[in-house]
Design a protein that fits this description.
Blueprint: E1 4-8, H1 12-23, E2 27-33, H2 36-42, H3 49-55, E3 60-62, H4 70-76, E4 80-83, H5 92-95, E5 101-106, E6 112-115, H6 118-124, E7 129-136, E8 146-153, H7 160-185, E9 198-200, H8 216-225, E10 233-237, E11 241-251, E12 265-269, E13 272-277, E14 280-287
Parallel strand pairs: 1-2, 1-4, 2-3, 4-5, 6-9
Antiparallel strand pairs: 5-7, 7-8, 10-11, 11-14, 12-13, 13-14
Helix pairs in contact: 1-7, 6-8
Length: 300
């Protein structure tokens, strides 16, 4: 028998997975999501799931992350909660309102990569391989039994958008197998090796700032990890102030600027500033600064 599902989510992957679920004939009792005015402030990749729900004539409820939604879920009598793209932990009492429990979706090779911002950390840490995992949600963060896993390669030039596309495509393609698994086995899965777990911490605003004392490789990774749909990496110029950087190119430092300190603008290429860093230079190929980033100026 098909499980009766309540989906909770608020980002682009949530919307895509909801579409995949409807295409696979899932029995969706309702969708719980964030209002646009709340979601757009909280998530760079926010998606209004009420639009998708309306297209498929599904009931949709706007709720607050962290609010008590237990009574609402209880009234819907679900067999399973699908929590796909929800940044706050849901209380165990709320998860227990579903007959079988809850399923999460995490784009990391669990047990490595539990925690926050998995796509960003995947690029920053230079992972060559990763995975999307559907898992049973337990008391901890991303530590439950794995129901289904799909591995993928991480390209050396991966951006936030490209890796997100891979994750969403793999996740959507796996939805029919996930539904079949739940029909046959419930939420029984493969336990994670907790001794091998790596938990990635929550990132703060300071984590998104380019420090030109970093290597070319790390600056490039940081910028790619925070590129669109994320808000971009920050750079602070002595005159122009703080601006966003969305793409850099690794370059040789001009011989004439071999003694320039990291952060010094040592040239321009097609109007883009070339900035000295720890082991060379990076061209700020796409940024939000004006025309005040000339040679001789510097980033703090």
């Amino acid at each position: 028998m098909r499980p009766r599902i309540v989906l909770i989510g608020a980002v682009q992957s949530s919307a895509a997975l909801l579409e995949a679920m409807t295409a696979a004939g899932a029995d969706i009792a309702a969708v719980l999501t964030l209002r646009p005015d709340v979601g757009q402030k909280r998530h760079s990749d926010y998606a209004d799931l009420s639009v998708t729900a309306a297209r498929h004539a599904l009931p949709c409820h706007f709720v607050e992350e962290g609010s008590d939604i237990r009574s609402l879920i209880t009234s819907l009598s679900p067999d399973v909660l699908f929590v796909f793209g929800w940044s706050r932990l849901i209380e165990p009492e709320t998860l227990a309102a579903a007959r079988l429990g809850a399923v999460g979706f995490h784009p990391a090779p669990l047990p490595v990569g539990r925690g926050r911002h998995p796509l960003i950390w995947t690029i920053l840490n230079g992972l060559e391989k990763s995975a999307v995992c559907f898992f049973r949600i337990g008391a901890g963060a991303d530590d439950g039994d794995i129901l289904l896993r799909r591995d993928f390669d991480v390209a050396v030039d991966e951006t936030a958008a490209s890796i997100m596309q891979k994750v969403v495509s793999l996740g959507c393609a796996a939805v029919p197998d996930l539904l079949s698994h739940i029909e046959r086995r419930g939420l029984s899965g493969t336990p994670q090796d907790h001794g091998s777990a790596v938990v990635w911490r929550k990132r703060g605003s300071h984590d998104g700032r380019i420090d030109f004392r970093m290597s070319q490789k790390m600056i490039d990774r940081l910028v790619r990890a925070l590129s669109r749909p994320y808000p971009g990496a920050d750079a602070e110029h002595a005159v122009a102030g703080t601006g966003k950087v969305f793409r850099v190119e690794v370059c040789e430092r001009p011989q004439s600027a071999r003694f320039a300190e990291p952060g010094r603008v040592v040239g321009q290429m097609a109007g883009a500033p070339l900035v000295a860093c720890a082991d060379g230079a990076v061209l700020l190929a796409e940024h939000g600064f004006g025309n005040s980033i000339g040679p001789g100026s510097w980033f703090q």
